[in-house]
Amino acid sequence: MINNLAPIALFVYNRPGHTKKTVTALQKNKLAKDSKLFVFSDAPKNPAEKTEVKKVRNYLRQINGFKKITIIEQKENQGLAKSIISGVTEIVNKYGRVIVLEDDLITSPYFLQYMNEALQIYENDKQVMHISGYFFPIKNNLPATFFFNQTSCWGWSTWKRAWQYFNPDANILLKEIKKGNQIKKFNLDGYHDFTKQLRDNINGNINTWAIKWQASVFLKDGLCLHPNKSLVQNIGHDGSGINCKENDIFNNDSLAGQINISPIVLKETVEARRLVAKFFAKRKMPLHKRLLLKIKSI
Question: Can you give the pTM of this predicted structure?
Fold first, then answer.
């Protein structure tokens, strides 16, 4: 039995169609009617976006299906990074735990159950800092749940005890990673340049939060729990998102059903790291090489 259900923090902006799909899927979750939902609606950053933001807010005022719904309508534009950092901090400090979603995430009907069970089971294991609902579209023989030391911003949860270590300063984070000679490890053993996102934040090319959370967890040797099949689908890779480019490489054919969670050894699963590294390596290959690799595998 799950005690003390975690509140849900949903961050929305100017995509009424995506928001409706996200909320509709969430309403179908087994624990939705017993969960508190906090919706953070960012204000338009320019006059051209007022209409779509208004449509989103009008829709939000009509939704139901949750224990309690609180809508926070920002009067000034925060931007995605600031909105999520401040919203997560506010909710997690008040309730001790939080489940986080954005307006382009379709969840399995068992997403909330998975999140709440994991939050309860690992509540007192300080090394566990992050629960991920998303996993890459990778065929695998991994356990139902496993630890892989990479966070995911597509449907996740955490505790106040872990979020207190979040550092929004990309410059300090990068220096600490370099200081510990951990660049290669942080960059998925060299298969993906995550440090570039930190450098881009430092240089002002982007303004994101997720890579800073990933680095913060990494520097604390934190563990991140993942399912072997994703409970979340990101529908924002259609060119409408702020930080997601148009592609379908992260799409899963289907979402996971009910996942039975039980305590596992607090140690990263090496096979998961290998599979994800291989996934990112394939992304970088030219098309003709990817086709040859697929033919060989067949």
Answer: 0.92
